[in-house]
Amino acid sequence: MAENSTGKVAVVFGTRPEIIKLAPVLRALGEDGEAVFTGQHYDPELTDAVFRSCGLPSVAPAVTGVGGGSRAGQVATMVDQLSSLFARTRPRAVVVQGDTNTTNAGAQAGHYLGIPVVHVEAGLRSHDRAMPEETNRLLVSALADVHCAATPENARNLLDGAVPAGSVFVTGNPVVEAVTALLPDEAETARVLAGHGVAAGSVLATVHRPENTDDPVRLRALLDGLGRLGAPVALPLHPRTRKALAAWGVDVPAAVRVLPPVDHRTFLAFARSASLLVSDSGGVQEEVTVLRKPLVVVRTSTERPESVAAGFSVLSEPEDLVAHAGRMLSAESLARIATTASPYGDGLASQRIAQLAVGEVPAPPAVWMSAQFS
Ligand code: UDP
Predict the structure, then answer these.
(1) Ligand 1, closest atom to CA 236?
(2) What is d(CA 371, CA 342) in angstroms, rounded to the nearest whole number?
(3) Which of 28, 74, 155, 285 has CB 3.0 to 4.6 Å from 149, enough for a Cys bridge?
(4) Given pLDDT bands bounded at 50, 70 and 90, which one contains residue 366?
(5) What is the set of domains in the chain, with CATH numbers?
(6) How confident is the model at residue 43 (pLDDT cuts 50, 70, 90)?
(7) pLDDT of residue 41
(8) What is the DSSP letter of 199?
(9) Ligand 1 centre and the CA of 280: distance in Å?
(10) Which atom of ligand 1 is nearest to the CA of 21?
(11) Using one digit for the tens of pLDDT, what is the confidence trace for 122-145?
(12) What was the pLDDT predicted at 367?
């Protein structure tokens, strides 16, 4: 792809979801790929165990001084240090994923050096510019040379934003293969649950988005709703949420069992046995479509409408959580979930992305544009 480089493909990641979704891409690239970790998630609770469970060696951060800084400071530090790194190593392409500050900085650093930038999970739009993730998405869409859209809807968003059609490919989302590669079987699931004291059939919840953690009224209503679901709840707690609960003095109801963040395989064991998930996570909205589980998304908007349209999830305000949970658990809803294919891919996304990253552009590109994964 880069005529002037025979280097490796630099796969840049800095947060838990990026590690999870790029691990299959690194595996597909094999010797052609090089992991570049920015350390944006500087909390080892969020990254070390995830590296291990995704089968990646813990990678030393290629950038120093990122964790915990301001948004502008983080991006500036990463652009500066990634540019120096890429100027030395001359990767043949830079792969970035999603919508974090790392994604934004990796794309800038590659672009300024004339290195082709491949964006995985391109074309998501919440149309809410107050979300830092949305501006990261828009910026990366302007900089990337190859846009790997997870769904035809995501591809349409890119084309509507004047991204050239020949650079957009519907590859699917590597989250599908990330989940299927790591999903424990029934016996291991039972062992994992017992080891963590989590009852089979519990509700699995995660909360970390600022719209919930930075607003004490929403956070209190959310915890209150979790306590009124009529089932035990496992809540692996993000460090940001732990700080917010303490800062706002929010009580955790007795039915809610707080756990430290868990590695991805453990999380998938919890999810596999859960009756219902409640989350504000982006990745979890995709994962439930592979696991065929009902999800209540406690957010005001989502950039993943496919999961809602296919019946796997519903958007809810915190105070409506119990009512929405009841609807998602109705016989009709569960029957639909059991028979609907994931809109996020067919398990081949990481292979397609690896091919694109090493410059094997399929001809004609329209082959992947029509993919529907059903
Ligand atoms: N996850 C995990 N352990 C946990 C909580 C979540 O491995 O204790 C995984 C989850 O399965 C999903 C990803 O982390 O793949 C989502 O990350 P997060 O919610 O931090 O970010 P988002 O997807 O919202 O960007």
Answers:
(1) 8
(2) 13
(3) 155
(4) very low
(5) 9-174+347-357 (3.40.50.2000), 185-338 (3.40.50.2000)
(6) confident
(7) 86
(8) -
(9) 10
(10) 15
(11) 999 999 888 899 999 999 999 999
(12) 45
Tell me the CB-side half-sphere exposure of residue 219, using CA atoms within 13 A. Answer: 23
pLDDT at 368 over 70: no
Answer yes or no: are the C-beta atoms of 42 and 68 closer than 8 Å. yes
Residue 363 CA to ligand 1 centre (angstroms):
35
Residue 8 backbone zone (phi > 0: left; psi -120 to 50: alpha; other: beta): beta
69 alpha carbon – ligand 1 mean position (Å): 21
**pLDDT confidence band for 25 (50 / 70 / 90):** very high
d(Cα 330, Cα 342) in Å, to the nearest integer? 20
Distance 82 CA to ligand 1 centre (A): 25
In whole angstroms, give the CA distance from residue 222 to residue 259: 17
User: Residues 178, 150: contact at Cβ < 8 Å?
Assistant: no
- CB-based contacts of 170: which residues, under 8 Å, 6+ apart? 149, 150, 151, 152, 154, 155, 368, 369, 370, 371
Question: DSSP E strands: which ranges in the chain?
Answer: 9-13, 33-37, 93-97, 117-122, 146-149, 168-170, 203-206, 233-236, 256-259, 276-279, 295-297, 313-315
Pocket test for ligand 1, best of 268, 281, 295 (most atoms within 8 A of CB): 281
Nearest Cα residue to atom 17 of ligand 1: 17
